[in-house]
C-alpha cells in the first residue's frame, strides 16, 4: 500500500481527474509577475524628494585664496607643450609640434556612431574608434 501524501505535494496526475485543468496562481503567470514587480518598483520610486535650501552664496562667500590673484602674471615664463600621436590631419600643432608622442588606444567600447557618421569621422580625422590618438 502506498503512503498518502498531503494534497499540496501530489502531482497533477494523482490530485485531479483526467482532463480537468486547474488555473495556475497569479504569481506564476509571467505577465502578472512583471506587472506586480513593476508596480512595486514604481511605488518605491514615487516618494517625494525634498531639496535643501540653496546655501551656495553663503558657503562660496567664505572660500578665499590666501595670496595674490592667480590671474595676474607671475615671475615664471610659460612654455607650450603639445603631446599626441603626431599624425593629426586637421591640427598642425598636434602633427608638427608634438614633443611627446603617445600611442593610440582602443576606445571602441566607449564610442560609437552610426555608420555614415563613423565613415565621415574616419575620412576627416584619419582614425577610427579602435585606434584613437591620445
Map the helices and strands:
Elements: H1 12-15, H2 30-45, H3 56-61, E1 82-84, E2 98-101, E3 104-105, H4 115-125, E4 132-133
Parallel strand pairs: 1-2
Antiparallel strand pairs: 3-4
Give a written overview of the molecule.
With 134 residues, the chain is α+β, with helices and mostly antiparallel strands. The protein is 28% helix and 8% strand. The protein has 4 helices and 4 strands; from the N terminus they run H-H-H-E-E-E-H-E. The chain has helices at residues 12-15, 30-45, 56-61, 115-125, and strands at 82-84, 98-101, 104-105, 132-133. A two-stranded parallel ribbon has the order 1-2. The protein starts with 11 loop residues before the first helix and ends with a strand. 0% of the residues are buried. The model has no long low-confidence stretch (mean pLDDT 77).
**H/E series, N to C?**
HHHEEEHE
Query: Quick one: how many beta strands?
Result: 4
Biggest sheet, open or closed, and with what strands and sense?
2 strands, parallel
Cα Rg: 34 Å
Broad structural category? alpha+beta
Strand content: 5-15%
Percent of residues in helices:
25-40%
Amino acid at each position: 500500500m502506498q503512503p498518502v501524501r498531503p494534497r499540496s505535494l501530489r502531482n497533477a496526475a494523482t490530485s485531479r481527474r483526467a482532463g480537468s485543468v486547474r488555473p495556475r496562481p497569479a504569481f506564476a503567470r509571467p505577465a502578472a509577475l512583471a506587472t506586480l514587480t513593476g508596480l512595486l518598483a514604481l511605488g518605491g520610486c514615487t516618494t517625494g524628494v525634498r531639496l535643501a535650501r540653496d546655501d551656495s552664496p553663503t558657503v562660496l562667500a567664505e572660500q578665499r585664496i590666501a595670496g595674490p590673484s592667480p590671474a595676474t602674471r607671475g615671475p615664471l615664463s610659460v612654455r607650450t607643450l603639445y603631446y599626441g600621436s603626431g599624425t593629426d590631419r586637421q591640427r598642425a600643432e598636434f602633427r608638427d609640434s608634438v614633443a611627446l608622442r603617445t600611442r593610440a588606444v582602443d576606445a571602441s567600447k566607449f564610442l560609437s556612431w552610426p555608420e555614415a557618421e563613423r565613415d565621415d569621422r574616419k575620412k576627416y580625422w584619419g582614425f577610427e574608434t579602435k585606434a584613437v590618438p591620445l
